[in-house]
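User: Reviewer 2 asked us to show a designed sequence for the structure in our supplementary figure. I'm pasting the structure tokens here. Could you produce the per-position amino acids so we can include them in the response letter?
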């Protein structure tokens, strides 16, 4: 298939593009290589993709309406995986406008491109952050998610609502994936695993929020990519049992689906740090701090719908996954 993937210089987009190319798909990769984090890491990821004959790089901003219109018109992708976004809960407190541009305007351009060029299926990144103030564990796609705690979370919830509108009005099949704390080789430098590994190896203290009592459903990158590919291949359909009397937030009469994609196995942050210490062979100097604004104390994914619909089952334990990341980090940064 010809698949448009946005965010191919990013962590998940890079791994997904590799996987799609390996199975014989043609990938049009979109990224603007913004400087939210180290651009040289993004360039290094792209350098792994660009030699592939079936990979086409398009260095444009998804918020650039005319550029996106031209891209869809030129390439006419059969399917789209939209991963490009302004990420990060804490950064959304500092620079809220970046989230409106990338996550709302950018997503609008993706939806319009899909609508006008007959895209057969749009899969897009949502986030576990949409659960916000919810406290019922594990988080279920059948739960109401109307109380986001950060603008980042609100922008991802808005994406789900916008997608539903296009599924309803234009019959565009859309699948939203709520990612739960993705980690692994080539990961993001603003994420805890990267920060902790870098500082522990350098002998610097690490900031541990909520005194290490956070729980996160850490999900290894290979498991995430497997889930994305499986959902991409299974085009969203309407739910014939759906009722407006008791509406199910995770499905619709329209060809619309929402899934959690997580490990279904939350790990406390203090345990996560212990494993990093074991894998690096160094002890962490911890600066214990209270919880930050916008953060939630725990995430835990109910992935039953994804298991039932596409046979997804994460199988990479956190010890193995952290070990692979530390090995990659030492090799890439020659530490």
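Assistant: Here is a per-position design you can include in the supplement:
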């Amino acid at each position: 298939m010809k698949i448009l993937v946005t965010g191919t210089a990013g962590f998940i987009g890079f791994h997904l593009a590799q996987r799609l190319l390996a199975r014989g798909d043609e990938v049009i990769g979109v990224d603007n290589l913004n400087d939210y984090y180290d651009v040289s890491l993004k360039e290094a990821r792209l350098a792994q993709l660009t030699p592939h004959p079936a990979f086409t790089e398009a260095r444009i901003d998804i918020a650039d309406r005319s550029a996106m219109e031209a891209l869809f018109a030129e390439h006419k992708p059969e399917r789209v995986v939209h991963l490009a976004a302004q990420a990060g809960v804490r950064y959304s407190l500092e620079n809220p406008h970046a989230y409106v541009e990338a996550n709302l305007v950018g997503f609008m351009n993706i939806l319009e491109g899909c609508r006008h060029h007959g895209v057969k299926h749009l899969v897009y990144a949502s986030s576990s952050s949409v659960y916000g103030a919810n406290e019922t564990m594990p988080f279920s796609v059948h739960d109401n998610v109307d109380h986001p705690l950060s603008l980042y979370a609100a922008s991802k919830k808005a994406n789900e609502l916008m997608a539903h509108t296009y599924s309803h009005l234009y019959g565009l099949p859309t699948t939203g994936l709520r990612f739960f704390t993705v980690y692994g080789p080539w990961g993001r430098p603003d994420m805890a695993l990267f920060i902790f590994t870098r500082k522990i190896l350098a002998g610097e203290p690490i900031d541990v929020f909520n005194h290490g009592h956070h729980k996160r459903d850490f999900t290894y990158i290979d498991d995430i990519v497997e889930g994305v590919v499986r959902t991409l291949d299974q085009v969203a359909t309407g739910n014939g049992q759906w009722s407006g009397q008791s509406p199910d937030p995770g499905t619709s009469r329209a060809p619309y689906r929402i899934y959690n994609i997580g490990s279904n196995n939350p790990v406390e942050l203090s345990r996560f740090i212990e494993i990093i210490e074991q894998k690096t062979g160094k002890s962490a100097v911890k600066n214990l701090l209270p919880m930050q604004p916008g953060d939630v104390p725990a995430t835990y994914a109910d992935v039953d719908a994804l298991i039932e619909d596409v046979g997804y089952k994460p199988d990479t334990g956190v010890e193995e996954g952290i070990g692979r990341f530390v090995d990659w980090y030492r090799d890439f940064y020659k530490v």
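For the response letter, you might also mention the following. DSSP finds eleven helices and 13 strands in the chain. The chain has a mean pLDDT of 95.
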